[in-house]
Amino acid sequence: MSDVPVRPPPPPPPLPAGWTEHNAPSGHTYYFNKETKKSTYTRPVAAAAQPPPPTPLPPPPASLPARPPASLGAESGYSDYNDPTHQQLNAFDPKRQMEDLIFGGAQNLYSNRGQDHARGGLRGGFRGGHNNFADRPRQPRDRPKHRQDIPGCAPWVLVRTKLRRRFVWNKDTNESFWKFPPDVMKAVIEFDRVEREKKERRERGEPSDVEEDDAMAEIEAGLAQAEEDVEIVEVEGEEGMEDEEEYEEVEVTDDEGEEASHPPKRQRTEEPPTEQPPEDDDLAWQLAQMEEMEQMGGDHEQEEYFEEEPLSEDDCKALFKELLDDTNTNPYTPWDKVLEAGALYGDERYKALPNMKARKECFDEWARDKIQYLKEQKAKQQKLDPRIPYLALLDRYATPKLYWPEFRRKYKKEPELKDMKLPDKEKEKLYREHIKRIGMHSSELKSDLTALLKAQPLAALNHSSTLDTLPSSILIDLRYISLPPSSREPLIKTYISTLPAAPEGAAASAEEEAAVAKKREERRRRERALAEREKSVQEEKRQQERDLAYGKGRLREEEMEIERAMNVGKEGLRAHLGAE
Amino acid sequence: MPPVRTARASKKAPPEGFDDLEDTLLEFAAAMKDAENAPHDGKKKYEMVWPIFQITHQRSRYIYELYYEKEAISRQLYDWLLKNGYADAGLIAKWKKQGYEKLCCVRCIQTKETNFRSTCICRVPKEQLKEGQDIQCVNCGCRGCSSGD
């Protein structure tokens, strides 16, 4: 059976006069007769009588005939049949095997259903015709989600869709099949086995090696190539996407049914008219879309696929350090106090590191670096410091009337005089010299000050400098304060106005700017990655919830069905047959 | 007669970098004062000194880490801090020795005054204690300061 990968369905017979084709809101195609005002899901055939043949209600999936919903006794028999331990049995059942393959990992999720009627796959709840489509929760449209190379089967790629179904896709010929070709099937079985082992290992807590990266890159390249020759055919929901989703395997199993000479007990209500070809194209198109999205999203889009490690350890640390920087934490405070202050908790970046120990280590590292940095800054600053305030004090209070001891006693409360950084000897020397200079002639003092100003380099003193931003080399000079402020300030102002503008120090700053920009870029990347991680976690959670709700719904449906089956009246089996 | 030295006059000005730590040290001093003046109602006699030991430990640890691990303060400042009683030099001396990296207080390794010539219960590693045994030593309220924990 598997050497015929895709059988194009026969073209639909033309509709008889009076019938028109419509799409129901649920996405299904139905047919309406204007004259008789009748509507049906069954495609009316021209040769048959004008009113469509009385066919059963909507879609009796073809999996059903082989296994009608039976009494509990029969169920138990089937459970035996479907018991995973009976692998040999299953191996001889190509249909089952097929579905095993198609649903691959999804089986774990729906395992309870799979046990009872594995055949049903995703459609398990829909047999028996008790469902009406309106009740059914609308499924999201299926689309490819995850790709994996099949090892040892080079151009073939295993694609998992959003609904956790799987199909294979040939990168070279750009074909995709729900039904796996025989050679591919072997590889997929092998691959599944490996995957399962890996998963088990992971559950046992052993580290699994990451080997997907290169595979992913290869797929990437393949897809980029494929995109060029994919003819984009957009198939929207007109054909009833849901139907397609539901029926793809129906067709497969149905064919098998016929081949295995099972007389089909049910008539299919709908012959999906042009199902397979658009399906193929559609998938190709979706793959192309996927590729496009990836290209748009850049590198961090990729991280969605490797949810395990979107952020490296260094990144996490850097994030945490940025948080510490941003909260203006004092690096001299102990870690306990930082925690007590509680400024860190509200931030997302606090959770970047997994535990308290890591955080403390990170804090220590950060504090050490920060303190080092602060020290350097201070060392740079302090070179100009100590004499400037002292000279300013002298400028304010010093008079020739006071000797040094008197002056010191009088102003001993001033912080400048208390300052230990400038030794007393130095202070005294400066004071005496200053007093001596105050007695000098003002023209001499003026010429001294001009000489001092002229000695300044243009980088330090230029057109843009003001009286408040004089360079320290002027401020620590006695010649600067010898003149009283009233005559000194106009002199300096006029001198500054004659100066040219500052020379451009652009070359030095360009490098710095580049460094800053790089840092900022890094930071932005990390923050994005964090947000991405957050998002993917949310997504996963939502997915799980949805799966759970979906599974519950299914279970409920099945329970109801069983209840209906159990509810045998006096008529016994006839009631059931009659109902259908 | 020798000149009378007041506490203020005899104290040297702190070396450079002290103002960075000053706030934290003041906080410790305030906490210590609170602990000293805390009401004693309903507490055991030995329980009253626990917070004092704990604050001493924290402050010593703070200075120890600043000097030995973060290398944030100078030797001069460190010595000055020790001399002025901001940290317990004896405790820090123990922390540098293997097996005593987390020691809570020097009293807990004093074997002379105990009944069986042994150290305090808090020095016993967790795995050697009975399952679920919750201890708190009498000396300083330590819940376990073995290096392996």
Automatic annotation (TrEMBL), chain A:
SMART domains attached here? FF (SM00441), WW (SM00456)
Matches recorded under InterPro entries: FF_domain, FF_domain_sf, TCRG1-like, WW_dom, WW_dom_sf
Q: Which domain of life is it from?
A: Eukaryota
Question: Where along the chain is composition biased (Acidic residues)?
Answer: 208-217, 226-258, 301-312
The segment annotated Disordered runs over 1-88, 123-149, 196-312, 503-556
**For this protein, what is any one GO molecular function term?**
RNA polymerase binding
Q: Does Repeat appear among the keywords?
A: yes
PROSITE patterns assigned to the protein according to its UniProt record, in alphabetical order: WW_DOMAIN_1 (PS01159), WW_DOMAIN_2 (PS50020)
> Ranges for the WW domain?
13-46
Compositional bias annotation for Pro residues: 1-16, 50-68
Supply the alphabetized keyword list. Answer: Repeat
Basic and acidic residues bias spans: 133-142, 196-207, 259-271, 528-556
Which terms in the GO cellular component ontology are assigned? nucleus
- Identification of the protein by name: WW domain-containing protein
Instruction: Give the species this sequence originates from.
Output: Bimuria novae-zelandiae CBS 107.79
Automatic annotation (TrEMBL), chain B:
Q: Which GO terms describe its biological process?
A: mRNA splicing, via spliceosome
Report whether Nucleus shows up as a keyword of the record: yes
Which InterPro entries did the record assign? BUD31, BUD31/G10-rel_CS
Q: What is this protein called?
A: Cell cycle control protein cwf14
The compartments listed are: Nucleus
Q: Which UniProt keywords apply?
A: Nucleus
Q: Which domain of life is it from?
A: Eukaryota
Record-level GO cellular component terms: spliceosomal complex
Instruction: Give a Pfam family name.
Output: BUD31
Keyword Nucleus listed? The answer is yes
Q: What is its main location?
A: nucleus
Q: Per the similarity annotation, which family is this?
A: Belongs to the BUD31 (G10) family.
